[in-house]
Amino acid sequence: MQQLVVLCCCWAIFSDINKIYDAIADQVGIFTQRFTTFIAGFLLGFVSGWKLTLVIIAVSPLIGVGAAFMALAVAKLTGKELEGYAKAGAVADEVLSSMRTVAAFGGERKEVERYERNLLFAQRWGIRKGIIMGTFTGYMWLIIFLCYALAFWYGSKLVLDEEEYSPGNLMQVFFGILIGAINLGQTSSCLEAFASGRGAAANIFSTIDKEPIIDCLSEDGYKLDKVKGEIEFHNVTFHYPSRPEVKILDKLSMVIKSGETTAFVGPSGAGKSSAVQLIQRFYDPDEGMVTLDGHDIRSLNIQWLRSLIGIVEQEPVLFATTIAENICYGRENVSNDDIINAAKKANAYNFIMDLPQKFDTLVGEGGGQMSGGQKQRIAIARALIRQPRILLLDMATSALDNESEALVQEALDKVRHGRTSISIAHRLSTIKNADVIIGFEHGRAVERGNHKELMERKGVYFTLVTLQSQGDRALHETAKQIKEDKAVEEPRLEKVQSFRRGSYRESLRASLRQRSRSQLSNILPDPSLVIAGDQPEIFPNAVPYREDTKATIKEPVMEDEEVEPAPVARILKYNAKEWPYMLFGSFAAAVNGTVTPLYALLFSQILGTFSLPDEIEKRKQIDDICVLFVIVGAISFCTQFLQGYAFATSGELLTKRLRKIGFRAMLGQEIGWFDDHRNSPGALTTRLATDASQVQGATGSQIGMIVNSLTNIGVALTIAFYFSWKLSLVILCFLPFIALSGALQAKMLTGFANQDKLALEDAGRISNEALTNIRTIAGLAKEKKFVEMYEKQLVTPYKAAIKKANVYGICFGFAQCVIFIANSVSYRYGGFLVHKEGLHFSYVFRVISSIVTSGTALGRASSYTPDYAKAKISAARFFKLVDRVPKIKVYSDEGQKWNDFKGSLDFNDCKFTYPSRPNIQVLNGLSVSVKPGQTLAFVGSSGCGKSTSVQLLERFYDPDEGSVLVDGHNSKDVNVSFLRSKIGIVSQEPVLFDCNIAENIKYGDNMREISKDQIIAAAKKAQLHEFVMSLPDKYETNVGAHGSQLSRGQKQRIAIARAIIRDPKILLLDEATSALDTESEKTVQAALDEARQGRTCIVIAHRLSTIQNSDIIAVMSQGVIIEKGTHDELMALKGAYYKLVTTGAPIS
């Protein structure tokens, strides 16, 4: 539910705010104008004839009761509708943020269905809202026409029987009441907007008014003058709010002394990370307290407290901006020198300077353009620049290779001095020098001491060390034996502690010169690049990215995409399936459009009736006209209901269809498309939230309004020309001016709509990023900064809105001005025609009343111009997405498939650059082959292309040059869904979805139904079953946002179970056990070894003990393989791999 709440907030910011905007923008002015016209009309009625006016007003409460009922019903239904759209938006956001996982497990169609289920929920409530609105509008017009019938009947009595009124008084009363009633009737659209706005505002205001348990922005609390950094837990008991039945910490008591390094060790789920989160006040304990220098941290100012703390987590969160900006999030007002120093301390400086844009390089959404190790080092630099008093290291070096880990660990050891430091690590070698090691078990601190003391005690720590050392012993013994042998041949090697990049490359080339060049003379023209023919092979062309190459490639410039407004005809095609609804709705709207001109005809007929000399005929005609009013009212009730129902249904079905098609099109794009900053999850979910609903501005209920207005105009003009073509032509001279105003308005607003959309998408990206990564932002105390960034993005649409308001106001005022001038001229000319040409005075009223109603209809039609402008822009962006042909087609049935899938793999001279960074060569001639059932392990420094090769195999990308062969078939020619169905993957940072454990495991195979027994079997193989059965809800336990309710080891085991249940022919393990504690790693490694049987397996690991039994170990550097062979062969070769094992020397 946590993920749902976060993503619903992202959706609500735009969907609900749009509803509120609609309610308080144009509608307030329109409602005020119409309501004051209604008041003025009734006041005129009272002055001219209070008796008749009172009779009419007596009926008014019926309208008021109906309006109140409608407002309540619509507000409730709008809330339900928005709830459905919010859930759908949450699904979209979660899926788009996890696209690689969705694509890897072929979940695109499943996610589209899940998205559609939530849209159906919203659609049902939307249709009900349309029915309520149609019923109320019909009811209101029925009451108005019944009121007319009663008023005319009673008015005729007052004129003919009691002779209190003259026909002139009656005309004044009726004109006042007529105009007032029509304007009151037209407020229904405003009332609908108000009711929808109230429903949306209820959601927004409930969030604004909610009192947070921990107020991150509060200025309250103490700020200590001097901080020593001593932290103490006093009998702390804690459970997560979402799982109150599971106790995470149980009466935890411990002291973390100032200036000391304290390490937390223990199995996954023991409460180590939870204790760290309590120190940061992400949560408060249920019982007991946490103190800093003797002060309960709940009494301290929270922003000040968090400013003292620097944290580096296992899964670092980077923001979609530059490397420099990401480091600057650690502390305000830092200089370039500070940034560079922090990067150097974190061992990030060298790789940053190798990038073309250096510190100005964009890291991508969630740091997606960086490798795991690079992200981790940027996160460490961000923590170091903070100069924290308390340093929290939660698996801070888990994503680093051996080379980087050693250097970063050394840097961390330096910065720890004088600071209180807490370290959580499963790699126990990184914490054995800690001042104090605290062993956790079942939420309690069960032992405390240094490495030597705890080894003697033989408790939790001793067990973990023993298990881990068993895994590394064979590797170390082999390395030691070979090292001793080599020491006899080359005694100087013992003195070598580290290798500089240049000296190591020279030594590598020197060793190659001893080999015969004759083998290679026909392969490579460059004599300095040599390849050995036999295994183990060495490829020294590890410096492919030369300066001259760098100069020929230009950095792409990301420009905001411009779109031309879409043709309405194409928009209507998407509503074609609803043609019966559209037909009946348009028929009803056309009938409704004839009602007001028909009223003008009947009204003028009554005026003419009073001039008849025969009293009996006069009364008979008045009674007949009153009956006609009743009939028109009854017809209007039926047609208004039909119009409301038909267009609500067609509009909701269109909205659902557009959102589904748009979401499906997004999931069908290749992964490279998502790397573009314009297609970040935040921008895409904003587009889904706004585009589909705004397209209704050119379809749905708007068509009904337009048909209504056009019919109104057509019938009115027909009546007018029939009775006096001269007067009609004079009045019509003014209509082009109104049309010109509308056209100008449409042209201007279209431009503003485009600007608004781009700015709002950027704002959506920021809000999505902030809410999704709220823990990181809270830990950095950057809530206010993100609010300021969000506000800054809203300045553009705000300024555009000011300009838009000016344009809209001028055009609307001009149109209204023309109408009043037309009235003035028409009455003057009508009097002339009566006087000079003998035109009957009732005909003048018929013509003028008809033209006035048509003018009102034209004005109403022009008021749809803003929605129409937005609709064309939104539709254009939608069509651009739908029409885009992805480079890798997920939904296509084309491509090769074969039954006897074996799993042999060949990378043939693969060269590759990421689409978003075409000037950085990631792979430059990768060549390696794997036979079915073999295990290939990639070894190398962070960023050398290991994970990229896995992404090529998954066809997230295709190589720029060269090919990837699967069973001899070029991967580009293989059906994408078929290929991915044969591959299972476990990544370093496992992505879990916000559903229960069983659903997450089932996600491993979306091509078939998975039974409960199969889920349990997969969980047992991943060493997960026992933990799951200890939970109150067992397999029905919700894992939370990104698996936030579970420890990292637990998340990783679920991801492994998900891969196992797929029963893949090819298994990809990208640091699959990096998040596990020693005990879990041993058992899961055994499970993975079993799962690898009979499967082709590609392993990426920094912990060399996990790959030493691989059939092929490929050592990578700068996008190529420089050595490959078995562990023994590479150790015997005494090259890069040997040095990595024996000394941790960098691979160059």
TrEMBL record:
Membrane-spanning ranges: 49-75, 131-154, 579-604, 625-648, 719-740, 807-827
State the compartments where it is located: Cell membrane
Instruction: List the PROSITE patterns hit by this protein, alphabetically.
Output: ABC_TM1F, ABC_TRANSPORTER_1, ABC_TRANSPORTER_2
Q: Which domain of life is it from?
A: Eukaryota
Gene Ontology MF annotations: ABC-type oligopeptide transporter activity; ATP binding; ATP hydrolysis activity
Choose any GO biological process term that the UniProt entry carries and state it: oligopeptide export from mitochondrion
Keywords (alphabetical) are: ATP-binding, Cell membrane, Glycoprotein, Membrane, Nucleotide-binding, Repeat, Translocase, Transmembrane, Transmembrane helix, Transport
A Pfam family in this protein? ABC_membrane
Q: What is the protein's membrane topology class?
A: Multi-pass membrane protein
Task: Enumerate the SUPFAM superfamilies for this protein.
Answer: ABC transporter transmembrane region, P-loop containing nucleoside triphosphate hydrolases
Keyword Plastid in annotation: no
- Fetch the InterPro entries from UniProt: AAA+_ATPase, ABC1_TM_dom, ABC1_TM_sf, ABC_transporter-like_ATP-bd, ABC_transporter-like_CS, P-loop_NTPase, Type_1_exporter
Record keyword Lyase present:
no
Report domain ABC transmembrane type-1 positions. 15-196, 583-870
Q: Which protein family is named in the record?
A: Belongs to the ABC transporter superfamily. ABCB family. Multidrug resistance exporter (TC 3.A.1.201) subfamily.
Under which name does UniProt file this protein?
A: Bile salt export pump isoform X3
In the UniProt record, the gene name given for this protein reads ABCB11
